[in-house]
Amino acid sequence: MHYEFKFNKILHIKEREKDQAFDVYNQAVKRFEESAGKLYALLKKKEDMEAYQQSRLIKGLPVQEIRHHQHFVNGLEKTIDYYQKMVANARSQMNFQQDKLMEKNMEVKKYEKMKEKDLASFMEDIKQKEGRQMDDISIQLYMNRGN
Predict the structure, then answer these.
(1) Tens of pLDDT along 27-37?
(2) Which of 4, 35, 68, 100 has the fewest C-beta atoms under 10 angstroms from its C-beta?
(3) 8-115: which CATH topology?
């Protein structure tokens, strides 16, 4: 006898949805990592620039150069603020996609569990039918031996 899960098509659809959610999640993680990497590079650049300016201040430097550095650092801070917002948005999007992925994964697991239970029930039915057939054969053999 052949076993076929009655919700097999639904299970395949749910698995496909889970795979799509996984791909979307991976893209969100990639966007987060890229924006976080850019933010880190900008913060490092700002830190290096401030250290350079500090060392130049000790040696002495013209006011015009101080203004130039300060203007550059202010522009860098605006860019850093922008990337901080991007990182926060990317993180929230990544967390949202992770939640969706977990939800899809749970749905697939439910259907897989249903399939396991259905298969176990199917196997139990087969065992019972085989047992009845063996009983019928035994009874027939006994009856034939008696004749």
Answers:
(1) 999 999 999 99
(2) 4
(3) Helix Hairpins (1.10.287)
